[in-house]
Design a protein that fits this description.
By secondary structure, this protein is mostly helical. The protein has a domain at 47-78. It has helices at 9-39, 49-60, 65-76.
């Protein structure tokens, strides 16, 4: 079959290498996404700066549970 040629040639080996690197890259990206999803599972992130500040004040004990809930409801309905 390849009696008169030297196999795939330079471009064939290059394409095989690039294909292998792309496959390993996809596996690594999938592992990274899975790791992030498992690591962040159950961790609630507060995106709004006002909610984050309110949560910090509650954590420090500056406001009680009722005050926290009331202000949080106010922030979310504005």
């Amino acid at each position: 079959m390849f009696w008169h040629h030297n196999g795939m040639g330079g471009f064939g080996y290059l394409l095989m290498l690039l294909n292998s690197l792309a496959f390993v890259g996809l596996l690594a990206a999938g592992g990274w996404v899975g790791w992030r999803a498992l690591r962040d599972h159950g961790e609630r992130r507060v995106g709004d700066p006002a909610e984050r500040l309110l949560a910090e004040r509650f954590a420090r004990g500056e406001i009680n549970d009722e005050e926290y809930q009331r202000r949080l409801d106010t922030l979310r309905h504005v």
